[in-house]
Amino acid sequence: QVRLVDSGGGLVQAGDSLTLSCAAEGQPPSHYAMAWVRRAPVKERDLVAAIRWSGSTNAYYSDSVKGRFTISRDNAKNTVDFRMHDLRPEDAAVYYCAASPYSGPQYLPVDAAEYNYWGQGTQVTVSS
Fold first, then answer.
1. What angle do CA 20, 37, 32 make, to 5 degrees?
2. Are 113 and 45 in contact (CB under 8 A)?
3. Is the N or the C terminus of the chain less surrounded, counting Cβ atoms within 10 Å?
4. 3-state secondary structure (DSSP) of residue 91
5. 78: DSSP letter
6. Facing residues of 39 across strands?
7. In the chain, what are the helix, strand and coil shares in percent, each to the nearest 5?
8. Helix (H) and strand (E) counts in the chain
9. Given the DSSP bridges, would you call strands 10-13 and 122-127 parallel, antiparallel or unpaired?
10. Distance (Å, whole) CA 70 – CA 11
11. Is 20 within 8 Å of 36 (Cβ atoms)?
12. Cβ contacts of residue 107 below 8 Å, gap of 6+?
């Protein structure tokens, strides 16, 4: 069982930066993957970044955030950070940290349905 606690959301202006953090209580097994998933009002949840908990640090980014957002992990601290730059009004959403047991050396889950463990979410609001 992995418990995730999200933090770092807030109200920012367009063009600003913000860093979200996810603390895992109980170290995720080495084969897990971690992701950030966002949900805006009346929209489907959208997995925007994912990374393996161990091994390769190659990450997945959705086209909507590629080049602006960076996911990283700190295995010693059991944390996953999400640095967001050049925020836009369309980035406004509740952001959730999530963990998946369906990862492996050759496979990184990029579908939110494959993530079983979720943080409580942190709100990001971007004013134009």
1. 90
2. no
3. N
4. helix
5. T
6. 94
7. 5, 50, 45
8. 0, 11
9. parallel
10. 19
11. yes
12. none
Q: pLDDT (tens digit, 9 = 90+) per residue, 14-63? A: 999 999 999 999 888 888 999 999 999 989 999 999 999 988 889 999 99
Residue identified by tokens 């913000």 is 18
Tokens coding 21: 């953090």
Look-up: residue for tokens 């963990």? 99
Give 107-121 pLDDT, tens digit per residue: 999 999 999 999 999
Closest CA to 22 of 67, 58, 53, 60: 53
Tokens, residue 109: 């889950």
Cβ atoms of 108 and 33 closer than 8 Å: yes
Q: Phi/psi zone of residue 15: left (φ > 0), alpha (ψ -120 to 50 degrees), beta? A: left
